[in-house]
Q: What sequence folds into this?
C-alpha cells in the first residue's frame, strides 16, 4: 500500500471505526487501496480533459462526492461511485488523447526546455554577479588587520577611492538581475508546462504512457527546478529584489574593509608600530628637535582644544542653570481688557420711517419709494452729523445687509420674521435696503468705486489695484495714491455665494476685534505691533473692505525663505541669516506682549501673520480668530479655523483658556526657525534633543498651559540673552531693516526654468511644486520641504541602521542632490540674473540726465541728477566718518582738552544730523530709480549690513551636505586618551 496522505489516514481511521471489531483493519486497508487506485486513474483522466463543459463539472462534482463518502468511512460505496465518473472521464480524455501525437509532446518539451534552460542560465549569471562582487569585498584585506596606523589609514584612503567602482559594479549586477527578471514573463513557461502536463495525462489515458515516459521525467525535473528557492527561477520579483536582499551584506562588507576599529582596539606584543609610534611608546630612540617641536605644538593644540571644550561645557551648564530659573516664571502678564466699543443703534436712527403712511399688505410704489428715501436720508444724516460717535459709524459700516434690512422691517412692519412679510412688503424692504446701501457707500468716510478700481480715504484717492495674495479666506489688494503712498485692502473672496457670505461675516468680526485692539493701545507708546487699520469701506452691494497700512517688508515666512536663498547663494553669511530670523522672532514675542496687556489671544500666530515694514518693524496681522478674555481671565468660546502645529491642540478639548495658548504658537515658530516646514502639534516634545532652542521649545509646548513660560521669560531665556551677547543689537537692527527691504524686492523675483529639463533631474513631486513661471519663494519652499524630508530620513537611519543601509542612504543622497540642483541651477541663477538686471538698470539711471529729483543739501533743496545725488551722498558719508574718527581721537587722547564733554556733544549732534541727512538722501535715491535698480540697491545695502556677521560662504554644491575633511577627522579620532597622555609626557620631557 502506498504512503498515505493525512487525508487518507483520516479516511482509514473512520472506516476502521465504522466496521467494528468483526472486520479486520487489513481488509479496510485493502478497500482504501482500491479506492485510491481508482481515484488516481479518474483524477488523471479528469486532469487531461480540455476546456470545462458539462462533463467537466459533472466529473468534478463526482470526485467531491466520492471523497465525501470516503470521509464518512464508506470506502466501498465511494469506490463504486467512481465507476460511473471514471468511464465518463476516461472516455472524454481518451478522445482527446488519441488526437495528440508523441512528436507534438516531444517538440513542445524541447521548446520549453530550451527556453527554460536559457532562463536558468541568465538568472544564475545575474545571481553569480552579485555573489562574486560580495566575495571580492569579503576577500579583500581589512584596514583594521594592517600592521601600523599609517598603513591602515593609507589602505582605507585607497579603498574609499575604490569604493565607487564597487558600487558601480553593484549597480551593474542590479541591472543584470532586472534584465533577467524582465525576460521571465514573456517566455510564459508555467502555462505551457501546465498545458503539456494535461497533454501527457491525456496520452497516458489512451495507454501510450511508455512512449512519453522520458518527456514526463524532463518536465518533472523542470518543475523541481522551478520550485527551488520559493520559485526563484520563475518569479520576477525575487530576481529583481535579489541585489537589494544582499545589499545589507554588501554594505557591511564595505564597512568592514574601511573600519579602523579593530586596529584602534589592538594592544599587546602583536602590534607592529612605525618609527614615530615606536619612539613615542618606548622612548628607545631620542626625539630630534624638529619632532619634539611638532609634539609640543600638538600638545598645545590638544590642551587649547580641551580648554575650549571645557569653556563650552561651562557655558552650556550656565545656560541650563539660567533657563532653570528664568523659564520657571510661568505668570501671565498683567492686562487691562479694553471696553467694548459703542454700537450703532438702528432703532434710534431708522425711527418712524413710515410716518404718515398706512402700512398694509400691499404697499404702493409711491409709499415704498418714500420709505426708501427716508431710510437713505436717515443714514446720511447720522453719518454726516458731527456729534455722531465715530465708533458707531464704524459699526454701521460693518453691518450686514440682512441685519440692515431687518432693522428697517422692525421699524416699518414691526416684525423681523420674513414669514410675516407679504410679497409687496418684501419689494418695499428690498427697495429701501438698496437705497440705504447706496447712501452708506456714498457718505461713509471711506468709499470704493462701483468697479473697485478707486479707493477714497478721507478725500485722498488711491488707484492702480494690484492683487498681492488671494486664497480661500479672501484677497489682499494694494492701492497706490498719486504721491506714491500705498495702502492694502483686504476683502472676502470666494466663488461660492454661501462661502462668500461666511467670509464677509468673518471679516466683519476680524475688523471689530482689530478696531477694539487698536483702541486699547498704550497712548504713550511711540510704536505699536498691531498693524494700523486705517478704516473700513462698504460697497453699494454691502460688500466690505478692510483698509490697512502697507507692510512692504512682507511676512516672516517670505522673509525667511528669501534670506535662506540669499545665504545659500553666498550673498550673506549664515550667521546673518540666523540673526535675522531669531531677531524677528523675538520681535514677534515683544509684539505678543502688547496683545497680552489687553487680554487679547490671537489664536493664529505664525510666520505668515507676522509682517514687517521695509525698515524692519514688526507688526501682527489677522485678528479673525482673536478673542478677549472675560472678567475671569479666560476665554470660553473658540472660533477654530487655525493652523495645526501653531495652535495649542488642548483648546479643542477644553475651550477655557488664556493668553498662554499663544505661547504654544511661539514653539511652532521656533521649530520653523530650525528648518521644519510644518511644525507638529504634539505636546511637550522637541525635535532638538538639547540646547537652549530645544529646551525653550519643550517648555512652550507643556501640556499644562499654566506651566508654560511667560513672554517675559522667553525674552530673558538663554536663547534670547545669547543672541544679544553674540550679536550687536544696532547691527542686528540695521540688518533687519536691510533684509526686509531686500525681501520686499526679491519675493516677486521669478525666472524662466526649463521644466522639461528639470523633470530629468528632479522628482515629479518637486517639479510640480516649483510652478511655471517659477518664483524665488516657490523654489525656496521646495528646498525647505526637501531638507525636512532629509532630516527625518537621517533620524530614521540612526534608529534603524540596517534599513538605512539598504534603502535610506540612497534616498538621502537623492534628496541632497535635488536640493543642490534647485540651489545651483534655479535659485542662484534667478538671483544672479535679477542682480545683473538691477545693476544694468542702476548704471543706466546714473547716465540718464533726464532723471532728476529733489534732495536736501546743507539745508537747501536742490534738483539734481542721480549721479549728482550720489556724489553729494558720498561726500556726506566721508564727513560722517571723519567726525566719528575725530571723536574717537579725542576720547583716546593722552590729555583731554578743556570742555571735552560739551565738545563731544557738539560733534555727536553734528554727526547724528549728518547721518539723518544721509538716510534722507538714500531714500530719495532709492525712490527715484525703477524696481530693477531698487533690487540691486537693496542687495548692496543688505550685504553692507551683513558684513559685521562674518564672511559669506561659497554657494552649496549639487551634492548638498558632504563629508568635508572626513579623512583628517578620522585620523584625529584615533588619537586616543592613552596616546595623548604619552604625547604630553614625552613633550614635557
A:
Amino acid at each position: 500500500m502506498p504512503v498515505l496522505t493525512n487525508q487518507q489516514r483520516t479516511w482509514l481511521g473512520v472506516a476502521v471505526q465504522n466496521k467494528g471489531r468483526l472486520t479486520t483493519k487489513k481488509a479496510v486497508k485493502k478497500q482504501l487501496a482500491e479506492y485510491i487506485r481508482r481515484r488516481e486513474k479518474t483524477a488523471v483522466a479528469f486532469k487531461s480533459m480540455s476546456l470545462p463543459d458539462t462533463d467537466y463539472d459533472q466529473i468534478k462534482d463526482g470526485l467531491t462526492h466520492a471523497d465525501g463518502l470516503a470521509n464518512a468511512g464508506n470506502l466501498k460505496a465511494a469506490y463504486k461511485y467512481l465507476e460511473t465518473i471514471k468511464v465518463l472521464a476516461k472516455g472524454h480524455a481518451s478522445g482527446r488523447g488519441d488526437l495528440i501525437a508523441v512528436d507534438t509532446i516531444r517538440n513542445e518539451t524541447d521548446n520549453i526546455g530550451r527556453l527554460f534552460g536559457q532562463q536558468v542560465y541568465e538568472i544564475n549569471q545575474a545571481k553569480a554577479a552579485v555573489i562574486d562582487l560580495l566575495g571580492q569585498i569579503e576577500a579583500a584585506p581589512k584596514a583594521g588587520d594592517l600592521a601600523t596606523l599609517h598603513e591602515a589609514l593609507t589602505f582605507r584612503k585607497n579603498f574609499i577611492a575604490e569604493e565607487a567602482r564597487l558600487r558601480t559594479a553593484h549597480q551593474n549586477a542590479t541591472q543584470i538581475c532586472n534584465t533577467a527578471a524582465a525576460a521571465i514573463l514573456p517566455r510564459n513557461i508555467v502555462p505551457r508546462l501546465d498545458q503539456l502536463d494535461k497533454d501527457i495525462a491525456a496520452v497516458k489515458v489512451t495507454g501510450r504512457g511508455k512512449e512519453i515516459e522520458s518527456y514526463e521525467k524532463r518536465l518533472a525535473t523542470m518543475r523541481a527546478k522551478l520550485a527551488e528557492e520559493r520559485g526563484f527561477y520563475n518569479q520576477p520579483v525575487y530576481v529583481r529584489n535579489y541585489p537589494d536582499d544582499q545589499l545589507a551584506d554588501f554594505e557591511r562588507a564595505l564597512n568592514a574593509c574601511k573600519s579602523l576599529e579593530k586596529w584602534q582596539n589592538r594592544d599587546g606584543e602583536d602590534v607592529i608600530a612605525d618609527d614615530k609610534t615606536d619612539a613615542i611608546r618606548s622612548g628607545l630612540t631620542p626625539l630630534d628637535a624638529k619632532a619634539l617641536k611638532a609634539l609640543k605644538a600638538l600638545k598645545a593644540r590638544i590642551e587649547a582644544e580641551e580648554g575650549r571644550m571645557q569653556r563650552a561645557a561651562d557655558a552650556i551648564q550656565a545656560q541650563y542653570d539660567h533657563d532653570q530659573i528664568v523659564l520657571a516664571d510661568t505668570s501671565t502678564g498683567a492686562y487691562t481688557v479694553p471696553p467694548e466699543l459703542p454700537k450703532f443703534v438702528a432703532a434710534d436712527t431708522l425711527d418712524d420711517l413710515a410716518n404718515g403712511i398706512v402700512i398694509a399688505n400691499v404697499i404702493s410704489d409711491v409709499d415704498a419709494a418714500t420709505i426708501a428715501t427716508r431710510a437713505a436720508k436717515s443714514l446720511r444724516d447720522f453719518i454726516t452729523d458731527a456729534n455722531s460717535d465715530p465708533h458707531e459709524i464704524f459699526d454701521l459700516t460693518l453691518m450686514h445687509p440682512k441685519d440692515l434690512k431687518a432693522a428697517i422691517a422692525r421699524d416699518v412692519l414691526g416684525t423681523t420674521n420674513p414669514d410675516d412679510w407679504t410679497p409687496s412688503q418684501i419689494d418695499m424692504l428690498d427697495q429701501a435696503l438698496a437705497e440705504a446701501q447706496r447712501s452708506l457707500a456714498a457718505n461713509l468716510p471711506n468709499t470704493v468705486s462701483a468697479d473697485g478700481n478707486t479707493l477714497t480715504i478721507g478725500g485722498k484717492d488711491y488707484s492702480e489695484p494690484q492683487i498681492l495674495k488671494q486664497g480661500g479666506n479672501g484677497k489682499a489688494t494694494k492701492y497706490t495714491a498719486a504721491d506714491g503712498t500705498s495702502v492694502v485692502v483686504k476683502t472676502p473672496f470666494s466663488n461660492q455665494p454661501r462661502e462668500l457670505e461666511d467670509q464677509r461675516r468673518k471679516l466683519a468680526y476680524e475688523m471689530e476685534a482689530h478696531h477694539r485692539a487698536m483702541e486699547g493701545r498704550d497712548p504713550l507708546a511711540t510704536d505699536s505691533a498691531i498693524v494700523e487699520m486705517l478704516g473700513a469701506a462698504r460697497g453699494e452691494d454691502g460688500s466690505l473692505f478692510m483698509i490697512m497700512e502697507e507692510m512692504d517688508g512682507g511676512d516672516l515666512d517670505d522673509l525667511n525663505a528669501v534670506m535662506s536663498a540669499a545665504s545659500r547663494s553666498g550673498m550673506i553669511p549664515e550667521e546673518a541669516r540666523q540673526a535675522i530670523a531669531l531677531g524677528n522672532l523675538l520681535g514677534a514675542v515683544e509684539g505678543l506682549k502688547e496683545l497680552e496687556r489687553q487680554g487679547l489671544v490671537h489664536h493664529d500666530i505664525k510666520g505668515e501673520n507676522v509682517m514687517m515694514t521695509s525698515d524692519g518693524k514688526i507688526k501682527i496681522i489677522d485678528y479673525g480668530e482673536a478673542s478677549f478674555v472675560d472678567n475671569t481671565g479666560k476665554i470660553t468660546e473658540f472660533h477654530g479655523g487655525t493652523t495645526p502645529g501653531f495652535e495649542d491642540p488642548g483648546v479643542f478639548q477644553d475651550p477655557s483658556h488664556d493668553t498662554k495658548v499663544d505661547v504654544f504658537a511661539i514653539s511652532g515658530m521656533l521649530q520653523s526657525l530650525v528648518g521644519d516646514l510644518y511644525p507638529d502639534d504634539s505636546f511637550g516634545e522637541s525635535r532638538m534633543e538639547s540646547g537652549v532652542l530645544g529646551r525653550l521649545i519643550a517648555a512652550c509646548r507643556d501640556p499644562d498651559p499654566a506651566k508654560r513660560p511667560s513672554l517675559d521669560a522667553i525674552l530673558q531665556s538663554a536663547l534670547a540673552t545669547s543672541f544679544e551677547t553674540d550679536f550687536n543689537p544696532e547691527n542686528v537692527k540695521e540688518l533687519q531693516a536691510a533684509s526686509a527691504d531686500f525681501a520686499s524686492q526679491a519675493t516677486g523675483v521669478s525666472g524662466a526654468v526649463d521644466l522639461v529639463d528639470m523633470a530629468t533631474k528632479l522628482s515629479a513631486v518637486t517639479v510640480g511644486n516649483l510652478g511655471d513661471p517659477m518664483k524665488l519663494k516657490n523654489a525656496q519652499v521646495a528646498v525647505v520641504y526637501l531638507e525636512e524630508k532629509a532630516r527625518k530620513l537621517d533620524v530614521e537611519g540612526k534608529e534603524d541602521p540596517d534599513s538605512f543601509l539598504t534603502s535610506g542612504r540612497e534616498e538621502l543622497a537623492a534628496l541632497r542632490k535635488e536640493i543642490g540642483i534647485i540651489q545651483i541651477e534655479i535659485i542662484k541663477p534667478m538671483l544672479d540674473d535679477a542682480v545683473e538686471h538691477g545693476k544694468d538698470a542702476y548704471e543706466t539711471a546714473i547716465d540718464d540726465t533726464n532723471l532728476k529729483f529733489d534732495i536736501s543739501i546743507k539745508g537747501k533743496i536742490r534738483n539734481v541728477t542721480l549721479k549728482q545725488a550720489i556724489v553729494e551722498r558720498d561726500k556726506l558719508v566721508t564727513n560722517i566718518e571723519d567726525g566719528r574718527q575725530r571723536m574717537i581721537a579725542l576720547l583716546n587722547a593722552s590729555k583731554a582738552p578743556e570742555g571735552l564733554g560739551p565738545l563731544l556733544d557738539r560733534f555727536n549732534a553734528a554727526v547724528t544730523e549728518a547721518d539723518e541727512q544721509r538716510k534722507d538722501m538714500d531714500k530719495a535715491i532709492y525712490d527715484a530709480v525703477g524696481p530693477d535698480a531698487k533690487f540691486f540697491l537693496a542687495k548692496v545695502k543688505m550685504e553692507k549690513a551683513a558684513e559685521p556677521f562674518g564672511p559669506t560662504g561659497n554657494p552649496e554644491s549639487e551634492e548638498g551636505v558632504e563629508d568635508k575633511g572626513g579623512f583628517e577627522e578620522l585620523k584625529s579620532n584615533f588619537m586616543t586618551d592613552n596616546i595623548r597622555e604619552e604625547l604630553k609626557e614625552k613633550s614635557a620631557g
